[in-house]
Structures are given as structure tokens and as C-alpha cells.
Here is the input.
Amino acid sequence: MNFVSYSFAALFAVVFLCRLTLGRRKIERSYVGVLLASSLLFYGWHVPWYLSILVASALVDYAAGLALGRRPLEDARARRWILIASLCTNLGLLAFFKYANFGLSIAGDLAEAAGFDPAMPTLDLVLPMGISFYTFQSMSYTIDVYRGKLTPLASFPAFLFYISFFPQLVAGPIVRAAEFLPQLPRVRRLHLRVINEALFLIAGGYFLKMVCADNIATYVNAHWEAGYVPGADSGALLWLAAMFGGQIFCDFAGYSNIARGLALLLGYRLPINFNAPYIAGSFKNFWERWHITLSRWLRDYLYVPLGGNRVSPRRTYVNLMAVMVLGGLWHGAAWTFIVWGALHGGALAVERALGLHRGVPLVLRLPWWAVVQIVVLVAWIFFRSADVAGAWQFVRNIAALEFSPPNDVMRVGSWLLLPPALMHVWRLLEERRLVPAPAGYGQAALTGAMVFLIATAYASTNAFIYFQF
Amino acid sequence: MRSSTSSSRRRARTLQDAAHLGFGVFTAVALGTAAHLLAVPGLWAADIVAYRRPPDRGSFYLAHDRGGHVDHHVLYHGIDEASLARLRAADVLFLGNSRLMFALPGDVLRRFFEARGLSYYVLGFGHEEQHVFPLRLIRRFDLRPAVVVVNADGFFAADQSAWAEKVMRESAFDAWKLQREAEAAHRVRRVLHRFVPHYVDARTGKREFVIFRSRDDGTWFVGTDFGEGGAFAWPSDDRRRPDDGALAAARAFEREIESRGARLVLTIVPAPEASLHRARAMAAYLNVPLIVPDAGALRTIDGSHLSEESASRVAASLLEQLDRIEDLDQLSEDAVSRRDGEAQDSGTPSIRPHRASSPAGERSSAISP
Here is the structure.
């Protein structure tokens, strides 16, 4: 189910009504039952039988958690095997649905290069929505139990509820068990203050998605492929890349805001996922602001176990590259995502080599901010393009620096970048303690204005970009 | 004492929160009202508000508006029983792109075919759909019409539209969801934009095609009022020829149609993009008749699709020529005997189609399966 759909509106209306009646303290069994059932309906609405994959994945991790809980920490060998079995199941599901065709195509290319003429099959697979998100969530639980940081859950419905809680099920934030499970027994009544905060988040999310991202998408989708043609105008392509940078931020941050707002209305707090990423003054800081829950996951469950920065400098760079390339691959099975991840990994490595990861000197702050944003922009070109060759041509066209004056389409389209730009500037001023965070009447007025703009300036709906991941 | 203070503080905080919530609602309503009062004249004629509804709403379903293109899904997945029954019963099938759909108004076709006791169905599609998708429908539902009229306006090609690919990949459940979503969006937007404008459309001047599709005969009812439109004339320097791929696709299509007991007739709906020269070459290659509607001066609403008035004349001319090319009286008799045979096979009494003088209600039962 998509947040921007009437079926979702109907489902949420019913669930919220249950919150107001059955679940006034949030912990009532009947209310939790409604939340679990509606989460499964939310997921099954896409392709009903894919529910079985979700439940199977949850069952494996639930069982692994129980098995780990029964064995003392000293029984390291058995515990390790349980963990491996769980990880293999999760990663196996992910690999099959997400990477099988990519693997087959690479195998075909390699065989062809070796002089064979293989007829590689293509599997007719529909990627289960949100599989990358819930497998990571599921894995974080098992790993935390393995590490002894978490007590395994005795109740399977409670565990399934953690995995399938619908606001965050298909596109995050990736919520860790340690953040979510303690909320299960906590009483939370619905106060007006919470409603105001939630409505602000929800209106902001829908505004970013339906007004900004979807309107920007009409420009990006209409013109992006012009960038693959040699000799295309540098200025127009630079503008397109900036538009896509705005679109993907509005799309994904919009989704995350809606998810957080809905969860808040239902009695749960989800972690923040975006914090004005384009004001980041360093690559490290960018990943502390962009898709924060994924960055944290990669850091804690991949980068640190690989040795992180507690190994030799060379090994640290290898770790950075490996984590970022895998992060790129997490987004999709294509070379463009691998290049996107590699660009970020390379940039993080260079920043570390220059010592800028510890802090950027005052004189370098503005130039380094510009470097960061340019690299991020170039990486978006690979992220958005159909293939690496097309993206490379796009970049070469920009690098030719042949600019024509901006046309009407560019001038009008650029207005759509104004709201996310203002949000970033406000956040920057907020961090410098020059302005307060929106609250009270200001927040209410903003909510009202965004609702009005959603009703009058929405574009034709596109699916959320991150649904495909 | 302390508890009464904290309770009054709590009450004050609740009041303050309620005031904030109220202020948010007030802002949205105030902006909406201001937009309503200060609206530029003409802004309210948004297509979603001002469109004409089909005369008999029960006989039509929403096929297209900004909420989505629905009829590919409805027909391919057979989720509308009435449409499917009519499609299966059709003696004459019309195939083509959106230009054909605009060119064949339901009332003109209905009068013509009812007078001859024949059933028909217009199985054209938007998205510049070519022959692959309708052919899949013909196979899927084992359609066996007697005549297939094709708008040879780029119809024969090796592929289907990206939209059709998506439709075929999806399930009947997806089609059902899509239709419900589109209808809900249509209703909500129709009400919403009576009160507030849609600034994006107002800024870009983009028109919205609000189209309904008839369950009885598959024709489109175009709700949006596009007005008179601009004049159109066939290009004089048209020398385009069909490529080898199109010819091969057309030949394979013709064979399949004939194997189903149907005759193929080509036509060409006047449009700037269409090529009369290419259609003639295609008809000569296949050795099938080509109907070129002769309807005098024509107008298009958007430089591509015929205006309502032009469409009526084009359809009338097309049907008149079809009547001359095909022996429709004989076809009618054949259709009757075929239905009689089918009825006897299934052990149910047959209903003969009624001729021009018969009431419409009886005729419709005659062509129901």
C-alpha cells in the first residue's frame, strides 16, 4: 500500500479510530492486534503471497533469537552457527529476489567474454516491497541478541509486530529492536500536543512528496535522458541534476516524515531519518544527515565488525569502500548503484586521508562544503541514470562547461526547489541557535499552509522512489 | 493545593494545544477561502469539475483522468463482466489507437449497427497502443468476430506500449485496486476543486482528459469539453512507407485474424501524425480493403484527436463505406446462424437479432451471450 492512496487513507482512518476507542493507552491487546492485522493487510495489499516471505523471515529471526537466548554466551560456536543460519536466510531471500537477475546477467557477460554463448534465463520476479528494509531490521534483532545486547522476545506476534509495523515497513526508517521493543509495554495516551506534532510531520511529509517531489519528477522524467546525448547543454544538465537531488530528498524525507507522524499518532516514536543533508560540511556529516538509520545500521553491523577504523589506515579505507559499495548495492542490483556507493566510499576515504573527518578548519568550511555537494550531485547522476555509460556521458556533458542561458522551463521548475532549500537554511540557522524550531502557532500555521498547498498544487502521483529498494 | 495547580496547568496546556490545532485548521481554511474568493475568473473551469457526464452513467466506467489510465487493466484482466460479455459477442471489432477512439462516437455506431442487427465493440486504446496488446486480448478471450476493422495508423509493430507491459505483468487484483483508486481519486478531486483551484494546471494550462468507456460497445465518452479545436488537412507531401517489420507484423496479424474466421479491413482516421500513403501501401500489401473516410473539412481538439463534430462525420463516412465493402446483411445472417448453432450446442433457445424497427432493449438481449 502506498501512503499516497485512498486505500491507505481508509485503512488509517479505521486504525486511528481504533486508537481513539480500543487503544487509548496504546497497550491494550485488542489495539495491538488491530495494528498487527492492519500492518499485514498493508503489506499484503501489494502482492498478497509475499506476506509469506515477510512472515517466514520474521519466523527465522524469532526462532534464532529464542535459540540464542537458550544458549549461554560461552557457547560461542553454537551461537555463531545460529547467527549464520539466520543471516544466510535473510540475505538469501534478499539475494534471490533482488540480485538473482543481476547475477545471471553478470554470469552471462563473463561467459560471453570467455568465448561461450550462454542463453542465460531471466527470472520473472517482482521485488517484494520493502524487503531490503525489513530484512535489515530483522537482522539487527538477531545480531543484537547474539551480542547479548537484547533479550529475545518470547512472543512471536510481538516480534512480527515489530517487523511489520506499517508506518515504517516498506521504506523505513530502519528501526532497531532496541529502539522499538521497549516502546511496546509503555503507556502512551494521545494528547493534543502529540497530535499537533504528528500533523506537522504528516503534512510536511505529504507536502514534500506530493507538491515538491512529484512536481519536480515531471521535469526530471521528461528531460533526464537528454543528458545521455553528447553535446547536451551543461547548464540544463546541472539544473536537472540539482532537481533530482531535490526530488530524491523530498521523496524520501517526505516518506520518513509521514511514517514518523503516523507512528506518533498510533503511540510510537520512530527515529529521525533525514536532517537537512545538503547543509553537511563534510562527507562524514552528510551520512550523519542522509538516511540516518541506514548509515547507523551499516556502521554498527558492517563497518565496525569489519574492524572499522581500529585497524591499519589502508584497511580502514578498504572497509569504507566495502561498506559504501554494499550500501550502494543495497539500493538496487545495478552497476549505477555500485558506482554511486563507490563514489561516496572514495570521497569518505579521501576526506579521512586529508584528516577532514575530524573537523573542517574554518577557512576550508565553505570550499569543502562545495566539494561535498558537487560530489553528492555527481553521485546522484549515477543513481538516477539507466546505465553507467549514460551517466558518464551526462557528467561529461556537464564538465564541458558549455552553458546556455536558462530557459522558462528551468526558471519555473527551480521554484520547486525553494521549499526544501528553505527547510535546509532554517535548519542551519536553528543549529547555529539563530532561530527557534517551529513550534506553537508558527508550527500550526505552517501545517495549515502545507495542507492548503497539498490540495492545490499536488502533481500526479508517482510511487515513492525508495519503494523499489 | 499542588495537585490543583498542576491540574490547572495541565488544563492551560491542553487549551494552548487546542488553540494551536485550531489555528492550523483556521490557516488552511483561510487560505482556501482566500484562494476561492480571489480566484482568477475561468480558473474554476478546471476539467475535473466542468466535464460532461455520460448520459447513462451505469453503462460507463471511468477510463481515464489524472488519477490514471484504467481501461487497459479493466479489459485485459476482464474485471468488468458486462464489458467482457459484449466484447465476446462482437461481430465487428474496431482496433486502433486513441485517435480511433476519438473518431468513433458511440451514438453513431449504435444507430448504424442496431439497424443491421449486428453487435460490435471498439477495442482501441490510448498510449499509442499498437497491435500486440489487442491481439493478446483477442487470444486471451478467444474472440471470434466476423470483421476486424483496424486503424492503420502505426498499428502494426513488434511491440506493445510500456503501459501495456505493466498491465500484463500485473494481476487482476492489481487491476481491481487501480480501478477503485482511480474512481475514489476522481470523486474526491471533483469535489475538492469546486472549492479550491489546482494551481499547477492553472499555471501550465494543461488540459485533463476525462474519459469514460462504454460497457456496451467499448466506445469512449470524452467528458472534457475541448471546444472546436483547429483545422486539419492531410499533409500533401506524405510519402511515408511501411517498414519491413510493420509489413511482417501486419501479415502475421492478418493470418491470425483469418484463422479465427474474421475478415480484415483497414481504415485510416484522419490525423496529422497518420500517413494515408503508408496505409494505402499496407492495404495493397495485404490485399485487404482500405476505408478512407471522406468527411470534408475536419478539426482536431489538440492537433491530434478529432473534434466531436468532425468525429461524427468521419464515423458516418467510415461506416457507410464499410457497408459497401462488406456485405453486412449477409454478415448479419451469418451471425444469426452462428448464434443459433452455438445456442443449440449449449441447449439454450436462441434469440434472433432484431432489425432496425426493433426496440433497443430486445436488440441488446439479442447480442448478449
About this structure: The radius of gyration of chain B is 26 Å. The longest helix of chain B spans residues 2-37.
